Amino acid sequence: MARFLITSALPYINGVKHLGNLAGSMLPADVHARFRRMQGHEVLFICATDEHGTPAELAAAEMGVDARAYCDQYHEIQKAAGEGFRLSFDHFGRTSNPPNHRLTQHLAEALERNGLIEERTTRQVYSNADKRFLPDRYVEGTCPVCGYEKARGDQCDNCGSLLDPVQLKNPRSKISGSSDVELRDTAHLFLRQSKMQDVIRAWVDKAQGWPSLARSIAYKWLDEGLIDRSITRDLSWGVHVTKDGAPRPGFEEKVFYVWFDAPIGYIGASVEWAEATGQDWERWWRTDKGADDVTYVQFMGKDNVAFHTVSFPVTIIGSGEPWKLVDRLKAFNWVTWYGDKFSTSEKRGVFMDQALELLPGDYWRWYLMANAPESSDAAFTWEQFKDTINADLANVLGNFVNRIMKFAETKMGAVVPTEGEPGPLEKELYDDLEERLARISDFHDQMEFRKAAAETRALWVRGNEYLQVAAPWTALKTDPARAAVAVRTGLNLCALFAATAAPFIPDGAEAIRSGLGLSGEPAWPMGAKLFELVPPGQAIAAPPVLFRKIEDADVVAWSERFGGG
Questions:
Q1: Are 190 and 231 in contact, with CB atoms under 8 Å apart?
Q2: Whose CB among 205, 333, 453, 517 lies 3.0–4.6 Å from 370's, allowing a Cys bridge?
Q3: Nearest Cα to 43, choosing from 77, 8, 80?
Q4: Which residues of 293-332 are buried (b: 16+ CB within 10 A; e: fewer)?
């Protein structure tokens, strides 16, 4: 039994996440965690809401509540959405909780002792109307590159240029709207990433199990040269800055930058898990406490890769402490909405809570993984969604399960038949299944989700082909023993399909297993018992229709509500 530490990129707290956020980190991480558990491995699957930073403060202000109350509310909303999609986190924590604050302050002080944090004076926008320095996202103005008049202080959403607030033309405060702003000197802490350039490059050079997308992004940053970055901001909501365990003089009105404390939240959430369960978190995160035999796997969208392959490793390695570093990093491109961005304000796209109002989580889980944005961006369309669900879940899997189980229920006394011996048809099937299962397992191991889903569907198709040839409904009239073998084989195929489907569609898999009288968590199928998953003589009960077909009328209605088409 191996040990797998699995983390999903932390969803940001401001609002409900859309399907692209789900497909690019949380869902594939869950599929992999489920697969590893089914193999019998020990898994710790960790996630949390990322709760600090300017967007959280701004969203709270718009709602007329303080940041803590806002984050309390949306943490529960995001937790409920994750549960609705059956995301099997061992713990879903919060970066605003004490463990993350303690760890962030500890690591910052360790970095400073090692000469990797330096206090510097910089020029920053100050709002006379608000009587405060403005962090980058609190400043709006005209983009110096394209002329867009609502560019943020950190980035222009029109042309994509990364900016510094001092570059904006006609700057104004996002808090008050006032243009009465000026540049003033202020002190901030800088993480001296430039000193770690060679160390990080050597670490990336040795990394295994990274797709080309993740590796290329890491090398892009390294080739351009790592720069020192400010890791503090003028905000009240966040991890307060300390020195030698006490508030740092001159930094009483500042907090750590959200991108400094957020990745540390993986460890902080693990501490929360340990405190809630009585488990030992250090054996997962400290190599001097046993974590050297852990395989650490991270899942994230491509926009998060640089922080996880450069900035977070600078923090972890630079601390000089024996922290566990990532072993395998799975990065994803984006799911787009008909080739465009998801947008709440423009009613474009489906968000996690809305998706669950339309259909159960399994429908979305299957579609998003069968079309995972691994090699390129993947455009969601209602038409493709309908075609995928109807072809794969309704016609292939659902039809097979309902057909054979209904037949066994009505013609075989609602039990697994005991008569007859397998023949050449079953031997051929068995050999084929072994090869297919090995491929599916290998694709899961390599975290190639589209291929794993495609091969899983091919397994279901193979079962339908067997049933068409074996035709127990015909054999029953002339050779009952032969019909019994075909039905018993078909019911065992149902159990096999449920097991291989479980990482993707856990609710559907459980419905199949329940109908077969199977309980407990399924194990990953392998070896000589593929036709012995359901005991002969066991009572069965055909489940209701597993997956309803999506109709053209549904597509029309959903397109009108959410856009597309």
A1: yes
A2: 453
A3: 8
A4: ebbbbbbbbbebbbbbbbbbbbbbbbbeeebbebbbbbbb
What amino acid is encoded at 163 in this protein?
A: L
Please provide residue 526's backbone torsions phi and psi, each rounded to the nearest 5 degrees. -165, 160
Residue 206 CA to chain centroid, in angstroms? Answer: 25
SS3 assignment, position 484: helix
DSSP H helices in 371-505: 382-388, 399-411, 424-445, 449-470, 472-478, 480-501
Strand 294-301 and strand 328-332: the pairing is parallel
Measured CA to CA, the distance from residue 236 to residue 241 in angstroms comes to 11
CA 197/CA 226 separation, integer angstroms? 6
Assign residue 225 a region (left: φ > 0; alpha: ψ between -120 and 50; beta: otherwise): left
In the chain, pLDDT over 90 holds for what percent of residues? 89
Q: What pLDDT digit, counting tens, does each position of 182-195 carry? A: 999 999 999 999 99
Residue 532 φ then ψ, to 5°: -125, 30
Cα–Cα distance, 10 to 18 (Å, whole number): 14
pLDDT at 164 over 80: yes
Q: Note the pLDDT tens digit of each residue in 381-400.
A: 999 999 999 999 999 999 99
pLDDT at 136 over 90: no
For 520, residues 6+ apart whose C-beta sits below 8 A from its C-beta are: none
Return d(Cα 538, Cα 433) in angstroms, integer: 23
Spatial neighbors of 334 by CB under 8 A, at least 6 apart, are 20, 24, 301, 302, 373, 377, 378
31-41: per-residue pLDDT in tens?
999 999 999 99
CA–CA dist 240, 321 (Å, integer): 22
Q: What is the Cβ-side half-sphere exposure of residue 524, based on CA atoms within 13 angstroms?
A: 21
* pLDDT tens for each residue of 314-364: 999 999 999 999 999 999 999 999 988 887 656 678 999 999 999 999 999
pLDDT in tens, 191-231: 999 999 999 999 999 998 898 999 999 999 999 999 999 99
- Say if residues 70 and 63 touch (Cβ distance below 8 Å): yes
Inform me whether the pLDDT recorded for 144 exceeds 70.
Answer: yes
